[in-house]
Every structure is written in C-alpha cells, then in structure tokens.
Amino acid sequence: MTRPACDQLIEWLGLRLRVPGDWEIVRHSLGTLKGGITFVDRRKQRLQLRWTRCKKPPLVEKMLSDHTSRQLRDEPDALIEPFVFGQWSGRSRVMGGGVTLTRAAWYDVGDRVLIEAILSHRDDEQMLRDELLSSIELAEPMDFATRWRAFGFAAQCPADFRAVTATINAGEATLVFHQLDKPGGEKPRAGRGTLARMGMADGWFMGNLQRLLEAQHPKVTFDCTEVVLDELVTGGQRATALRATSLEPGPRIKKLAGRLRTRRDLLWHDADANAVFHIHTLSYEKAPVDPTDFRLQPAKEADLAA
Amino acid sequence: MPRRPKPQRISLEALLEAIPVCNRAARVEKNGQEVVVYLPIRPRWWMKPPFSWALPYRDERGVALDKLGAEVYAAVNGRRTVEQIVESFAKTHRLRFHEARLAVMQFLRMLAERNIIVLAVPDTEAGLSAQEDAR
User: Fold this and answer.
1) 10 Å Cβ neighbour count for A96?
2) From the list B83, B97, B99, which residue is nearest A170 (CB)?
3) Which end of chain B is more exposed for a tag (fewer CB within 10 A), N or C?
4) Contact between A116 and A104 (Cβ < 8 Å)
5) Secondary structure letter of residue A172 according to DSSP
C-alpha cells in the first residue's frame, strides 16, 4: 500500500504543518493558552495536535515516561517504544490490528508552548510519522499569528488582529477577527474583520454580487462600486469585485451620535474555486480598516511552494 | 409497555460504504430546474369513502428538490456507495471530500427521513442497527 504524501499545507494559530491531502480538520480551537486541532482522514481520526502555554518549561521526558508507566500499569503487555526525532520526544505503542499510536511532545522555548501530537498510523507508515513530525513548526508566535490556511482557503490578517471564531459548515468557512490595541495585545479595539469562503457557487450564485449582499443583509443600504482586485488579494488572477460601504445596523440614536461603525464589504466570485469570497470589516472612521488589509485566497496546490 | 431499544450509532466507515436505494413507489416530476419527488400516502380509514367524498384527501405528497438536491438524488442508482456519490459531488463542485460529505450526508438523511431513499448498510452489527433506523 502506498504511503499518503504530506502535500497539504496547514497554517493555524502560528503552527505550520503538512498533512496528507485527504486529511481534514474536524475539531479546532483558537485559544492561545490551551487548544488543539484534530485531523481525520476519510474514515477515522489520524492526528491530534494540542498546545499548552507553560509558565515554566515542562519536563517533557518525565511527562512521557509517566504516561508510559500508567499505560504499562493498566496493560503490562503493552509494547511501547521510546523515540527521539528532531525536536520531538515520544513513545510509539503498537495497538494491534496493524495500527501504531504515537504520542510525541516538544517544548518551544521561544513561545513557551508545549506542543503534543497524537498520531495514529499503520505499522508500516513510520515514514509518514517522521515526515509529519518534521513538518510541524511554530512559524509565528501564537499571539501574533497572522496566517491561516485550512478548509480550502488561505488567509492573512493585519498584525493587530486576532482570530476569535471559526465557523465551518458544508461548503462554507468563516473566520472572524477582532482588532487589538497592538500586535499580540490583550485590549480589544472596535475593528472587526470577517473572511468567508462560500463554496458550491454553481448551485446558488446567479452572478450578481450586489443582489447576494443585499439578500444577506436586507435591512442595510449599501453604496456599491465595482473594483478590480489584484493578485495580491485574490491569490490567482485579477478579479472584478464588488466593494460596498454602509453603516452597521443599530438604533437611530447611535447613528446620530456617530457611534455606528462603517461596514466595508468586498466580494468576488472565483470561478476556478467555484466559490464566492467575502471580506467585510467594521471600524470607526477615525481608525478605518479596509477589506484589502486582509488577504483571502483559495488554498491551491501551487501555493504550497510559497 | 416495553421501551423500544435505542438504535446503535452507525460508524462513519459503514455509512460511507452504504448504498442508497430509491423508493420504487416514488414518482419524479421535473419543473424547470426544480425536481419534485412524489410519494404515495398510505390511506387511513378516515381517508377512505364515505369520508373522502366530503373531505377529499390527496393521495401523494411531494418533496421539492433544489438543483444540488436533484443532483444528489440523480446520483442514487442503487449501485453507487455514499462514498462514491460524495467523491463525484466533490469533484463536480470543487469541494474538499469532507465538505462534500457534510452536504451530501445532510441531504441523504433528509431523503431517508422522508422515505424517498433507504440506506443499504453493509451487514455488520452497526449496519444492522442502521437498517432498523432506516425502517
């Protein structure tokens, strides 16, 4: 049986890794103190990647040996092999049925994060395990993460924004960002950014972006213009996009007091990806956030080399 | 009254290997892009004469399918597995397998709930319970 190639680049909360093309994230979190992402292949769970922010450097080896002792206490016949691979220390346990469960950990001193990986693979897939583990890196500090690549899109946010929610539905993925006082800061600001990829466009999109936007927000009056987006935003060819400006919905008293934020929308249809991409921002006029401050592109195979 | 045992959860693997089969009693009508599937309603005693002389009841109910729904329904031919249907759906709409699986499964579930299709699950323990479910 051929080993699946790790040809899918994933970027999530500063973590960067390569996984086989048919693996997909099924559980995810965006917390920088503690969280994880779980990958499945078509049939079962394959990789769980967890991170924990540590005040003091953890004793990774002791942690692993304690875990091994607990397993051996429960099942004295369990076959567990320690290994060290690059920065990873771990244990591989033969589970029977040709499956091996690998638990590995690594402490990133710079960002003070403990990364743990639990990988399920066939006994003959040790190369896959090595390739996967060697690909996992902390490309950006988690609090400063600006690049996101998963669920069929690649996105980039300004440095002072942090992802707060990711909503994944059938054919639709949405990432919401909140503005902070400074890159990696804690104090929230009023700016918001929402990036969405709406797939299966051939099933529902009739070719009119303005009508789509108005149907999504029937109570908002948009001021629309057409713009040509360059490759930097779309990632592929230049695209004709709809740029719309309006005020966020709210009570009239807030509008009179100038307390409603300006909403800026940017939508374009990517026929190659069969999707409509939508960036919208909310911000006060004194500190405007433009949709082109964000990048949203289909995650293409060609991007992998970048 | 004895409680009906709770059906076991069907595994994802068995579900992907299941073969959806159309209800032979279904009648399909195309109306432009919309497809309507009509299923006969089993007549109850109060739907038969002489009551029906005074209160005529419809003898079939229709389920309208949108473009994507009609595409999935057309792919159900009694031979293709759910996995094969998902694969072709993903290819057509340039979706990732898991995205397409979510969309197709939701739709197949809706069709099964309305008795338009049944899922023939491989003969395993989980499969048997799923067949009970479908019934």
Assistant:
1) 10
2) B99
3) N
4) yes
5) E
